[in-house]
Amino acid sequence: MSDPFDLIVIGGGSGGLAGAFRAASHGARVALLEPGALGGTCVNVGCVPKKAMWLAAELAQKIDLARQLGFDLPNTPPLDWPEFVAHRQRYIENIHASYRKRLDAAGIVLLPQRGRLVGPDAVECADGVRLRAANILLATGGHPVRPAIPGAEYGIDSDGFFALCDAPERVAIVGAGYIAVELAGVLQALGSRVDLFVRGPRLLASFDADLAAQLVEDYRQHGIHTHFGYALRAIDKDRDDRVRLRDAADVATDLYDTLILATGRMPNTKGLGLDVAGVACDALGFVLVDAQQRTSVAGIHAVGDITPQPALTPVAIAAARRLMDRLFGGQPDAAVDLADVATVVFSHPPIGKVGLNEAEARARFGDGDVHVYRTSFRPMLHALADSPQRSLFKLVCVGEDRRVVALNLLGEGVDEMLQGFAVALRRGITLQDLHDTVAINPTSAEEVVLLR
Ligand SMILES: Cc1cc2nc3c(=O)[nH]c(=O)nc-3n(C[C@H](O)[C@H](O)[C@H](O)COP(=O)(O)OP(=O)(O)OC[C@H]3O[C@@H](n4cnc5c(N)ncnc54)[C@H](O)[C@@H]3O)c2cc1C
Fold first, then answer.
1. Which one of 108, 239, 296, 345 is CB 3.0 to 4.6 Å from 178, fit for a cystine?
2. How far is the CA of 15 from the centre of ligand 1 (A)?
3. Cα 49 to averaged position of ligand 1 atoms, centre (Å)
């Protein structure tokens, strides 16, 4: 056994890095194990490259609107995909460099190795070196999973999407979650023709049903075909490597150049030694944690996508920071507050929510106590260009005093709009507080304070 550290972090993604930095800032001696690129999913194959592609898609749509409004532009200016990817990857490289610098400055020992638990306070690196520490943080994230059907290997997943070098002409996407919805919007805006295949009756199950339905309509206007109730049974491919889907009745779809399977993610627990250390998991394999990120084994903690907590970068970061404040910062009660976490789907237009959706509010407070205020409108740019894209805002209030318990927004700009309202909602506001706030005109955001 080598000299002990105070903390060993397994995984250098959003949660692991945040935990390592915060622990070091409290004076802890930290070892961080990360065999891949620093930043994990979010920086390398998640939020960051996804947002870059979304920004490119937004620009493409804006160019189209500009043309409709009189700018002398070519019909569909194609994106030089490799050039854009070079910009994207340069941006990501800068993040890596900044992490390396910060790790050095914080005195964190970075070991570019996989780690596995070999006891409640011991980790073995891939090269066989064993480290010991009173505290271990599991932050190994998750990975995409494909359906267990014949031909699933012919598709790519979200990692494969970020490896694309060009816009595929015809794309099928299977899934209904935020990754499927986001990639559909990006690809269609960048010139692909996209079909979205959904097993159930709707998109984005955890979001408001009306907003999800409006998004389907907005996507239809953009040319995306959504096929609900699709029972995918198999995938095959022709001599030109084009793929086709088959449903339960063995009916084949058209041929596609690319198939993206956005069919869920599972935690990275394989080979992590959870069984050796005795760390308990739930039925799906996620590491069980209490409200202060403790696993079932004293001294072993977990944050991020390896746990059942919401799979969002800011959740992993906040959980890791609070944990280190508790372990090394003298704050015994520190814990992440997961109530009213705001979240955005980067669709076109984006969807954002904080608090409950309407159905959840009715289930929790009862129909009689729930008051829903909604507005549907065309944002000014789209109205000017006579584009059909609509925004839909819903405010959910409860009780006589109309306490605001949720804001569900679909429309241009809601991704940037929501954060401030999330602060207000957490502080506790009523409908009257919104009405007492003088509007900013002319904006889409003012619709929130004008809702009646
Ligand atoms: C396509 C996509 C888009 C997304 N978009 C958003 C978004 O817009 N906003 C948002 O908030 N979230 C988004 N997410 C989710 C977000 O990326 C994750 O919630 C976040 O990265 C989780 O952080 P983590 O620290 O738990 O895991 P990760 O960031 O995945 O990091 C885990 C790290 O652990 C390492 N590792 C694994 N096993 C071992 C081992 N045995 N030893 C050592 N290291 C190991 C991995 O190499 C990896 O680097 C997106 C995810 C995807 C896939």
1. 345
2. 8
3. 13
pTM of the model: 0.96
- 138 in ligand 1 pocket by Cβ < 6 Å? no
As a residue count, the chain comes to 452
- The helix/strand/coil state of 98 is helix
From the list 318, 351, 321, 320, the residue with the least C-alpha distance to 337 is 318
Half-sphere exposure of 52 (CA within 13 A, CB side): 20
Distance CA 123, CA 139 (A): 13
What does the longest C-alpha to C-alpha distance in the chain come to?
71
Instruction: Say which residue the tokens 């999973």 belong to.
Output: 145
C-alpha–C-alpha distance, residues 267 and 27, integer Å = 30
Atom of ligand 1 nearest to the CA of 306: 26
b/e 252-285 (16+ beta carbons within 10 angstroms → b): ebeebbbbbbbbebebbbeebbbeebebebeeee
**Does residue 342 have its Cβ closer than 6 Å to ligand 1?**
no
Q: Is the dihedral of CA 87, 88, 92, 98 positive or negative?
A: positive
At position 42, the amino acid (one-letter code) is C
Report the SS3 class of residue 325: helix
Distance 50 CA to ligand 1 centre (A): 13
What are the two backbone dihedrals, phi and then psi, of residue 424, each rounded to the nearest 5 degrees? -60, -45
Task: Check whether 140 has a pLDDT greater than 90.
Answer: yes
